[in-house]
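User: Look at the shape:
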Amino acid sequence: MRKLLNTIAFAILVSSASLINNPEGLLAEVVIVRADAAWQRTDIILKRNHTIKWSVKEDDFWSFNTAMFPDGHNADGIPVPALESYTLPGEDIGMLLGKTGEDRIISMGLSGSDYIRPEEEGNYLYLTMNDDLIGKYGEGFKDNNGEILVTITQIPRRVAKIGILFIEGCPGVLTTAEYINEVITEEDIDAEISLILIETAEDARQLHFTGSPTVRINGTDIETNIKDIKDYGLRSRLYNIDGKESGYPSKDMIKDAIKKIK
């Protein structure tokens, strides 16, 4: 039957929280992050195929050292690289940071966004300030002061399930895969790409395979008129590109088909 050779997933709060509506019609959660505590678990559970977006008001201040900065600073922190015992060495001290998994820390600051990775689904979001975790160069979090309000929104991302069906020795499959990778990067789309080898005439019949390479997005062929063709089999497929025959679809054909799912 089929061989699934490769699947590529492109696919990439604290003390209290409240829900608000935003202009996009999505629910945003507002959470409090204290300056005097390290990683603080929020009530926000990360969702698969979503982008997490955050914002903090520019005049919302906290301080990583009240003796040095009695008036405080905002979530962007102070433009001084953190040392090795800090939460995120090399990033600005006093900056708002997020953690979505065991090993991934996000430099957040005043605003921004990041993709939630598949393996992070179901994790809680943690937030903190970039400060000395062990107090190696001072009192660590003990001499911090203040708290900030962080607005968090999780925005769903549409995922394109792209199948490349091909026969062994197909000369056009690699170029097709390259075009697809380029398009999903340019169009900023999450995608799951499957390379499916068609080995027998029965495979071709069951999968309505008319020739190699075939590209389907969410189950639909990129050539809409192909559904009228019932001649299935193990053969190469030709595409009409600007009046000329090609052994693989053009990048524009792939882009037009992918853009329809955005």
Remarks:
- The chain has two domains: 12-156, 158-259.
- The two ends are 32 Å apart (CA to CA).
- The mean pLDDT is 88.
